[in-house]
TrEMBL record, chain A:
<keyword id="KW-0812">Transmembrane</keyword>
<feature type="transmembrane region" description="Helical">
    <location>
        <begin position="74"/>
        <end position="94"/>
    </location>
</feature>
<protein>
    <recommendedName>
        <fullName>Anti-sigma factor</fullName>
    </recommendedName>
</protein>
<keyword id="KW-1133">Transmembrane helix</keyword>
<keyword id="KW-0472">Membrane</keyword>
Automatic annotation (TrEMBL), chain B:
<protein>
    <submittedName>
        <fullName>RNA polymerase sigma factor</fullName>
    </submittedName>
</protein>
<keyword id="KW-0804">Transcription</keyword>
<dbReference type="InterPro" id="IPR039425">
    <property type="entry name" value="RNA_pol_sigma-70-like"/>
</dbReference>
<dbReference type="InterPro" id="IPR013324">
    <property type="entry name" value="RNA_pol_sigma_r3/r4-like"/>
</dbReference>
<dbReference type="Pfam" id="PF08281">
    <property type="entry name" value="Sigma70_r4_2"/>
</dbReference>
<dbReference type="InterPro" id="IPR014284">
    <property type="entry name" value="RNA_pol_sigma-70_dom"/>
</dbReference>
<dbReference type="Pfam" id="PF04542">
    <property type="entry name" value="Sigma70_r2"/>
</dbReference>
<dbReference type="InterPro" id="IPR013325">
    <property type="entry name" value="RNA_pol_sigma_r2"/>
</dbReference>
<keyword id="KW-0731">Sigma factor</keyword>
């Protein structure tokens, strides 16, 4: 039987069902874990690891950063287009069954609307590049032979890189 | 104080003459915190070291474009989390095992690891964590050990705060049960 709550004045405030019961259980679980486990994981590092870590990391990291290929202007230019083309490849492949789709046959305004609706176009430059007078997309012929795993991996990497750069 | 330190690091890095000093300060300030965060996810020391290196490569590469929309520490935490997950996925693929088998494999190796000096209960905890669904295990580690706010975990994992709280409490109860039985 639930105790009558002397502190509860009728102010209109409510709590979710079983709030105090769950709160008590959760607090006791937390207390039990901290009592038995503490916060020590038992993981160790080699002696002096952190003392020398900065000296170990700095040259290696610096070297790797320098080795990363700088994107050429052409690559930078093409990246958004390729990313969008890849997205379209997935979308169109998934939506069209087994029939190959010639992207040139899709009306530009339909594509534009779709991309805007789905927020694929993240800046004006991308829009300009995609809808510039070029024939990059016209040459792409999509069919079920597109390896979606490869595309997903590619898009995942692109998104991760974009997140880091645009944060 | 933390915000001031973050600002100082970012300013040093942005100025070409002091970039290296900024990188050094960044390393000094965050290397241990990030290492332990990664270690709890990847378990093995050498793996944690490799992931830490990759994290700083990404950080050094991207930090000049960091606009400060979030705290620097949150940004670093997110990169470290993503790198750890990427590493574990690759490791699983290399060993041709799924995530739950990988977790069990990592805990098995832990028993012979010279860099693990945990007692029975700490080993039991690792075994319990390996048996949890991936998300519950991650959420438990972030909340219990790293004391990350539910709100921040939710943002990192793109879940609702309610879902994160619920997962944490379920995970905590399972671990409590597991340890009682063990």
């Amino acid at each position: 039987m639930e105790k009558e709550n002397k502190h509860k004045k009728d102010l209109g405030f409510q709590v979710p069902q079983d709030f105090f019961k769950n709160f008590e259980e959760d607090m006791m679980t937390q207390w039990n874990l901290e009592e038995k486990l503490g916060k020590d994981t038992g993981f160790e590092v080699p002696d002096g690891y952190f003392e020398s870590l900065e000296e170990q990391l700095l040259p290696v990291v610096d070297d790797k950063v320098r080795q990363l290929p700088k994107k050429s202007q052409v690559t930078t230019f093409l990246y958004p287009v390729l990313a969008i083309a890849a997205i379209l490849a997935v979308v169109l492949t998934l939506n069209t069954g087994s029939d190959p789709v010639d992207i040139a046959s899709v009306d530009t305004s339909v594509l534009e609307d779709y991309l805007i609706e789905e927020s694929f176009l993240y800046d004006d430059a991308t829009v300009d590049i995609l809808f510039a007078d070029n024939d990059i997309l016209d040459d792409i012929n999509l069919s079920e032979s597109v390896d979606t795993d490869v595309l997903y991996d590619y898009l995942e990497e692109e998104m991760e890189l974009n997140e880091i750069i645009t944060e | 104080m933390v915000v001031e330190k973050e600002y100082e690091i970012l300013e040093l890095i942005k100025t070409p003459q002091t970039t290296e000093a900024g990188y050094r300060m960044l390393l000094q300030e965050y290397q241990q915190q990030l290492y332990w965060q990664i270690r709890k996810l990847v378990i093995d020391h050498d793996d944690a070291h490799d992931v830490l290196q990759n994290v700083f490569v990404k950080v050094f590469k991207g930090i000049k474009n960091f606009k400060g929309d979030s705290k620097l520490s949150s940004w670093l935490y997110r990169i470290a989390y993503n790198e750890s997950m990427t590493f574990l996925t690759k490791k699983g693929k290399q060993l041709q095992i799924d995530n739950s088998e990988l977790q069990a494999h990592l805990v098995d190796q832990l028993e012979a690891d010279v860099y693990f000096t945990g007692d029975e209960i700490q080993l039991a905890l690792q075994k319990a964590l390996a048996q949890l669904p991936k998300r519950q295990s991650e959420i438990f580690k972030m909340r219990y050990y790293d004391e990350v706010k539910f709100k921040d975990i939710a943002a990192l994992l793109e879940l609702s705060e309610g879902a994160v709280k619920s997962s944490y409490h379920i995970a905590a109860k399972k671990i409590e049960q597991f340890i009682k039985q063990d």
